[in-house]
# Entry
Amino acid sequence: MALCTKKYLVKRVNHPLFCLNTNKARITMKPSPRQTQEAHQNYKKVSEHLIREGYAADKESADDIIKGMSEEWFNLIIEE
# Structure
C-alpha cells in the first residue's frame, strides 16, 4: 500500500488504482427533506421565542443569540 493523500490509501486491485477512504469519521449523510424542514421549523420557533420574550429585538439579533446559545437551551425552547 502506498499513501495517496492524507485521507486515502492506494491499493492495487483489478482496477488500475483504487483509493480507499480511511477518513470515515468525517463522512456524514445528507439530511432528508423532512429533517431539513424540521430543523428550519425549530430554528424559526427558537427565533420567535427569543423575540417574544425580549431577549432579541429582531430576527438578526435572535440569529446572533442562537449562534452562541447552548444546545441544552435550544432544545429546552423547542420542547415548550
Summary: The chain has two domains: 1-25, 31-80. Helices lie at 33-52, 59-68, 71-79. The two ends are 55 Å apart (CA to CA). The first strand starts at residue 2 and ends at 3.
